[in-house]
Please model this.
Amino acid sequence: MIEIDDLTVQFGGVRGLSALTASLPEPVTGLVGPNGAGKTTLINVLSGFVRPTTGSVRVDGRDLKDVPIYKRAAFGIRRTFQNEQVVENLTAGENVAAVLDNVPTDGQPRRQLIETALEFAGLGTARDVPGHSLNAYQRRMLEIARATVGRPRLVMMDEPGAGLAQHEGEHLRSVIKQIDGYCGAQVLLVDHDVDLISATCTATLVLDFGSAIAYGPTQKVLADPKVRAAYLGVLEETT
Ligand SMILES: Nc1ncnc2c1ncn2[C@@H]1O[C@H](COP(=O)(O)OP(=O)(O)OP(=O)(O)O)[C@@H](O)[C@H]1O
Model:
């Protein structure tokens, strides 16, 4: 559960977020909006890379101002990046293991956690493959294995579907929908691909100029004339 209260982020003269208030309880929540709307800024506040100018954010009731950036992964906040953070000379299994160095394992054997995470992401047979030999899709899925290993609370995904073939995109959707059941984490999904958002997110928050212009069930939100007007280019391309 993410609770955002009157959150403003000022970058010098530019406003990244403007008095944003929202409660996001759904297991898979979409975060959309035109370029420059503040989506990355919100993810950066949750990750700890950007400090709020005013306002607060709570995750599962904990005010993130009390969780320093180096403790966010251990607290359970994870993210995947558009440019995958794969360590090229480590195997897929070692890439996942590196995350476990920083998060609680609840006494479970590391090897088992790693294998389960790889299996979940569809990489069960790639454990010993070095990062530099993984294809683009495997690298994307390795990001998901890394983000879901252990006990995450919140997995934020930044354009996970970009550049994937259709069958890869379909597998990705099914994996995203299973994250909550698999590890109990809430997913916050940023993507310009409205089809991906529609297929995976039960609720969606729309930002424009750093503020919320709509929040609710995804299909309803995407049909909202206000949203279509703000987001026209992207929506028109896909309809
Ligand atoms: N580090 C920064 N310094 C100055 N301005 C910034 C910084 N980060 C973001 N901004 C500005 O804040 C506003 C919100 O940007 P943000 O990257 O959060 O938008 P976005 O919705 O993620 O856009 P996109 O879809 O293009 O990734 C923009 O006006 C942007 O130029």
User: Anything to note?
Assistant: The first strand starts at residue 2 and ends at 11.
